[in-house]
Amino acid sequence: TDPAIIRNFCIIAHIDHGKSTLADRMLQLTGVVEQRDMRAQYLDRMDIERERGITIKSQAVRMPWEVDGTAYALNMIDTPGHVDFTYEVSRSLAACEGAVLLVDAAQGIEAQTLANLYLAMENDLTIIPVLNKIDLPAAQPEKYAAELANLIGGDPADVLKVSGKTGEGVESLLDKIVRDLPAPVGDASAPARAMIFDSVYDTYRGVVTYVRVVDGKLSPRERIQMMSTKASHELLEIGVSSPEPTPTNGLGVGEVGYLITGVKDVRQSKVGDTITNLARPAAESLAGYADPKPMVFSGLYPIDGSDYPALREALDKLKLNDAALVYEPETSAALGFGFRVGFLGLLHLEIVRERLEREFNLDLISTAPNVIYEVTTEDKKTVTVTNPSEFPTGKVLEVREPMVSATILAPNEFVGAIMELCQSRRGDMKAMDYLSEDRVELRYRLPLAEIVFDFFDQLKSKTRGYASLDWKAEGEQVADLVKVDILLQGEQVDAFSAITHKDKAYSYGVMMTSKLRELIPRQQFEVPIQAAIGSRIIARENIRAIRKDVLAKCYGGDITRKRKLLEKQKEGKKRMKMVGRVEVPQEAFIAALSSE
Ligand code: GTP
């Protein structure tokens, strides 16, 4: 294909501003998906994606579109909108020349609108500003066109107004993509160089790799080489998604498509790597992407211990498709065998957990998530702590925690409430700007641990849902952090240890000890439940002794009923965990962890 007739673009937007709906409409208008095959959010393949209405994996689709009698090939690369998946957005952007910046005409610019716009600008993309959902009665296209024009420069009159729902304006948008976006440029006679921007594991076909060809050409049956590892593979199939995979006789300059080499693991086809021709390799690889870094760690345990091998297998399978997922085995006295798993954020955790439970039929319990700490001990050694149990026991010189720079957008009436919330989360205000007369952008430096869990929910509830948040990791700071242990009759229960700020240690201790007192049944002896920092006890509860006599309930003489009860009690015992001499039903641990 002649690069002059190719246009590569992506749609970037804040979550729920209607990216997938608009993409659907484009697929329909360009005829690549027939009416009768159309289902909502065609590009979101995974069930979870469809149910939650969010896009996780990027996909690329080729669509034909004619302008002034010339047939063009538009490659649309779908991107996820949630902050956890920003790293996928940046890879998609690197494969495009332009971006449609989509903004909900009833909401205006939100935090991820800005974050994505800045990413697009860093990638030198041409931006087409578009207001969506103009069919909504609450839409204020004039107001937000001015806001958008003000943000990216230009005339409010040039902001396109569309509705992904009704299809209004979408044809003009396709025309504008052809007219305004530059055609890709590359050297067709140079050795082949193609950028891997996504790699997906498919049960039937193995790894399907999505590439954007920059120079030269890739053809079927030739041998290609991964430039970072020098590994070579035969190209079994190469083609374009339109949107079903369609084999072609090669991909040239500027083209976007997929290839299959028969490898089984996405790590062998690494996102960000450059593919070249083995017989005639390129001298230099293309600039790659940074590897996604896990931010949040949590222990994942099967509720039924015999599911441990199944959990390992399931994680191995998910990993084929999710380069950001990291895990290693760990054991807990309370929960048995499980894994320490690293995630990009809480949404990523939730999705992985849900996929494990649903697709692999596992019942899981996850421990309270934590961020990564760097701890320097008295002998000047530094350890990286991804699990509270790794926290050094001796004297600690310094603990460092990861920080983020956060951007919050909201109507100005909520500024006070937002500042109060950020203050209570150890935040440090960096800037405050007015985007328009009634909307404010606040920038804060905050500890990751303070925002990664319930911050967004709090923010939403304090601003009646109007605030939006975006953040990115930015350095670390020394902080007054301690490890709080929970002890049952003097024995530490590892699953409940937590690293918290000193000021919050006491409330964590009180909360956990009183929760456990409710959940742990009485034993034949008194059981103290304590919270401690090192050897210092900061909270204490007692479970009084009682002799539990299940037979006391059946004062009749019904022997079968008695036997049943005794058997039931025995079954219950099996699911008991011993902490020292204390018998704790596993459900108590699970309840204590999940009601967090
Ligand atoms: P993510 O993929 O999760 O980032 O969301 P998205 O930006 O793709 O949004 P999506 O297309 O899922 O749309 C979000 C919601 O807005 C859905 O309930 C859509 O039905 C609705 N919606 C999308 N476009 C329009 C539109 O043009 N008009 C109206 N009225 N509703 C729309």
Features:
alpha+beta, six-stranded mixed sheet, 596 residues, binds guanosine-5'-triphosphate, globular, 14 helices
Question: Could you describe the 3D structure shown?
Answer:
The chain is of the alpha+beta class and 596 residues long. The protein is built from 14 helices and 31 strands. Helix 5 links the parallel strand 5 (126-132) and strand 6 (160-161). Helix 12 crosses helix 14. The protein is globular. The site of guanosine-5'-triphosphate has 19 residues, from helix 1. Residues 13, 15-21, 53-55, 81, 132-133, 135-136, 163-165 line the site of guanosine-5'-triphosphate.
Write the layout of secondary structure elements.
Elements: E1 6-13, H1 19-29, H2 47-52, E2 60-67, E3 70-77, H3 86-94, E4 98-104, H4 111-122, E5 126-132, H5 141-152, E6 160-161, H6 170-180, E7 193-202, E8 206-215, E9 223-226, E10 232-234, E11 237-241, E12 245-247, E13 256-260, E14 274-277, E15 296-302, H7 308-321, E16 326-332, E17 336-343, H8 346-359, E18 364-366, E19 373-377, E20 382-385, E21 396-411, H9 415-424, E22 428-436, E23 439-447, H10 448-451, H11 455-462, E24 468-478, E25 481-488, E26 491-492, E27 498-501, H12 502-519, E28 527-533, E29 536-543, H13 559-574, E30 576-579, E31 582-585, H14 586-594
Parallel strand pairs: 1-3, 1-4, 4-5, 5-6
Antiparallel strand pairs: 2-3, 7-8, 7-14, 8-13, 9-10, 9-14, 11-12, 11-13, 15-17, 15-18, 16-17, 19-20, 19-21, 21-23, 21-24, 22-23, 25-26, 25-27, 25-28, 28-29, 30-31
Helix pairs in contact: 12-14
Bound molecules: guanosine-5'-triphosphate.
Guanosine-5'-triphosphate (GTP) is lined by residues 13, 15-21, 53-55, 81, 132-133, 135-136, 163-165.
